[in-house]
């Protein structure tokens, strides 16, 4: 399997804290069936000031360590990029990395604040020949009020990436609901682990494939973890991209029942997503 979103590089962000944890994550990923993994630390101004050169150097160092430890995991580099000033020029000049040097890059929307001019941003990067892979929209606390914006982005050509653990309930009922709804609506391109450690955020992808298979069937679920992320890795056109629903139906998709939330629990879940 291909995992194109993982925070495994040690001491680069809020992922693996040290080399020992990074190695444990790598072993766990291999045991899960992951053969190719993109190391994608955050780029977040004022908090994680990473760039393509520093990330590539860290990946080379870690890859050498994996070889010494006999861990058969093929690495690439990328980044989980927040909206920052001059994002598009920095991608064009290589200051910010795409995934494995391809035209695809991870784009992380803010977790708790709706992104202004989201549709225009998607259009601008697509016009520049780049493909934004929108990371874990199912976990955003503001998704419910802006759901159609994400489906519209998928219609334009952006890719949607769900976290595998969202489909298993690792992040709670609301992210699981939205993840399953996006699968139902036919706009999910791939799954990734978004792993940060070995316990609460482990590098496990097979569980997400199995959960997706219960919604979509085994053939489509396999595309989510092999074919489409593999196309990103090789900078190829996607294989059998799901067709988003027509704009005219309001992106309602199937009438999947949303979990009920009341009182204090409702407020807490809205805060945490």
From TrEMBL:
* InterPro entries per UniProt: Caps_polysacc_synth_CpsB/CapC, Pol/histidinol_Pase-like
Under SUPFAM superfamilies, the record lists: PHP domain-like
Q: Which GO terms describe its molecular function?
A: manganese ion binding; protein tyrosine phosphatase activity
Q: Which reaction does it catalyse?
A: O-phospho-L-tyrosyl-[protein] + H2O = L-tyrosyl-[protein] + phosphate
The enzyme's E.C. designation:
3.1.3.48
What ranges does the record give for the region Disordered, renumbered to this chain?
A: 244-265
Which keywords does UniProt give here?
Answer: Hydrolase
Q: Which family does it belong to?
A: Belongs to the metallo-dependent hydrolases superfamily. CpsB/CapC family.
**PANTHER family this protein is in?**
TYROSINE-PROTEIN PHOSPHATASE YWQE (PTHR39181:SF1)
Please identify the protein, giving its name as recorded. protein-tyrosine-phosphatase
- Organism field: Thiolapillus brandeum
């Amino acid at each position: 399997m291909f995992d194109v979103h993982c925070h495994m590089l040690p001491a680069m962000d809020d992922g693996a804290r040290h080399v020992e944890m990074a190695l444990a994550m790598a072993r766990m990923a291999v045991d899960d069936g992951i053969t190719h993994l993109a190391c994608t630390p955050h780029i977040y101004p004022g908090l994680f000031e990473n760039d393509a050169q520093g990330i590539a150097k860290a990946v080379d160092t870690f890859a050498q360590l994996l070889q010494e430890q006999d861990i058969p995991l093929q690495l690439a580099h990328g980044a989980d990029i927040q909206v920052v000033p001059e994002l598009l020029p920095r991608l064009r000049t290589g200051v910010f990395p795409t995934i494995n040097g391809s035209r695809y890059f991870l784009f992380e929307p803010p977790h708790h604040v709706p992104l202004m001019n989201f549709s225009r941003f998607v259009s601008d990067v697509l016009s520049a020949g780049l493909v934004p892979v929108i990371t874990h929209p199912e976990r955003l606390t503001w998704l419910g009020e802006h759901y159609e914006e994400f489906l519209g982005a998928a219609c334009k050509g952006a890719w949607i990436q769900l976290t595998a653990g969202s489909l298993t309930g690792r992040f709670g009922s609301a992210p699981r609901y939205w993840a399953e709804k996006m699968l139902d609506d036919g706009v999910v391109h791939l799954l990734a682990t978004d792993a940060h450690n070995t316990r609460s955020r482990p590098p496990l992808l097979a569980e997400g494939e199995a959960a997706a298979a219960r919604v979509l069937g085994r053939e489509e679920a396999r595309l989510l973890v092999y074919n489409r992320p593999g196309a990103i890795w090789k900078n190829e056109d996607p294989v059998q991209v799901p067709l988003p629903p027509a704009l005219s139906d309001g992106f309602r998709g199937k009438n999947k029942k949303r979990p009920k939330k009341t009182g204090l629990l409702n407020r807490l879940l809205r805060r945490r997503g």
